[in-house]
Amino acid sequence: MYTRNLLWLVSLVSAAPLYAADVPTNTPLAPQQVFRYNNHSDPGTLDPQKVEENTAAQIVLDLFEGLVWMDGEGQVQPAQAERWEILDGGRRYIFHLRSGLQWSDGQPLTAEDFVLGWQRAVDPKTASPFAGYLAQAHINNAAAIVAGKADVTSLGVKATDDRTLEVTLEQPVPWFTTMLAWPTLFPVPHHVIAKHGDS
After folding, report:
1. Which positions make up the signal peptide (predicted)?
2. Domain boundaries, position 188
């Protein structure tokens, strides 16, 4: 009984904010609209390849976008990738990025930014808490790189041009596209990392 009542109360409280922004049509609004978001605590990092706690992960999900996202029904939807092909019996994926992608500073977002993000994720020097995630996805050489037995450039991901990303897997992974919605596989701005490194 207690558990049922607690679940009911949590559901009710969780749903309350959904109605807070229900503004009737033609209601005059303030000239400046401000959205405040309570994080509950300070994030440990906003680096997609280093994030591990929920607060930071939620902020990173608000700031960055991967190749795909998961809708409310748990279905994979295009995000930075407008479309993709699955080849070689599910061992090779070709992602085509949307045109006009750019970072907040106006610099173009390219397939190389995804390559860099993924290479950083498996690089032992980055010490990503989710380095093994790419090995679980069976991306070529990910496990060997994480173990320090292969160079990061041997990772099974490459940019064939600014808008095309090719990923090679060691074996077919039917749920591979769902894994792409996690921040560890988000792009990072190549020009910022080149200038500032991990600082």
Report:
1. 1-20
2. 54-196
Residue 63 sits in a domain of what CATH number? 3.90.76.10
86: which 2 tokens?
């699955």
d(CA 93, CA 173): 11
The whole-angstrom separation of Cα 83 and Cα 164 is 10
Task: Note the pTM of the prediction, 2 decimals.
Answer: 0.81
Which among 181, 187, 196, 194 has a CA at the least distance from the CA of 162?
187
Is position 62 within any domain? yes
Q: Is 116 domain-assigned?
A: yes
Overall number of domains in the chain:
1
> What torsion, rounded to 10 degrees, do the Cα atoms 175, 116, 166, 161 define?
150
Please give the average pLDDT of every successive group of 10 residues along the chain, which has 199 residues. Answer: 49 52 84 85 87 87 94 96 98 98 96 97 94 97 98 98 99 97 94 81
For residue 13, being part of any structural domain is answered with: no
Specify the 3-state DSSP secondary structure of 113: helix
Cα separations (Å) of 81 from 78, 155, 181?
A: 6, 20, 11
- Identity at 108, one-letter amino acid code: P
User: Is 60 a domain residue?
Assistant: yes
User: Which residue's entry shows tokens 């006009």?
Assistant: 100
